[in-house]
Amino acid sequence: MSGSIIGPYRQLPAECLPYDGAAPVVAERVAARITGGLDGVFAEHFGSTAVPGCQGKGVVDLMLIYAEGKLQAAIDRLETLGFQKQSTRDPFPEDRPMRIGSIVHEDRTFLLHVHVICSDSPEIDGLRRFRDRLRTDSDLRAAYIALKQKIIAMGITDSVDYSQHKSDFIVGAIANRAS
Prior knowledge:
Blueprint: H1 23-35, E1 41-46, E2 60-66, H2 71-81, E3 84-85, E4 98-105, E5 108-118, H3 122-136, H4 138-153, H5 159-175
Parallel strand pairs: 2-5
Antiparallel strand pairs: 1-2, 3-4, 4-5
Helix pairs in contact: 3-4, 3-5, 4-5
């Protein structure tokens, strides 16, 4: 990881890229960098890059989970490392922010999304459940990849629109607790 410095985020059109086995290594290193020396927080990899074999945008998603009262400390840490506020329309609210950035690993740039979530939020369980179902259910994973490919084939490459088109599928997969 070249210096472990968080670089600027580059907004790219959504696409459905092959799984990249380097993403979990990047996630682990970025998580360690974020949480190092900061009490009451931990980071966890989720999203398509956390699911072997799952195609997606290639963005490494992390949850930065903080204890009650530690939101500002978490945000300050991310800003100190160089993470930026979202610059797209409809950004996450500042009481449940997301920060963005990039990092170079093995001469390749990886885009990063860090979702800052309070430890008592039910959202954490939902994100974990979806990730874990994708890891264990090959039919669900194939259906999710097919949906992403269909969205791109429809010409939807704006990242916000792309995410909105996936939301019903994700909500349905989270609600179905059967693995």
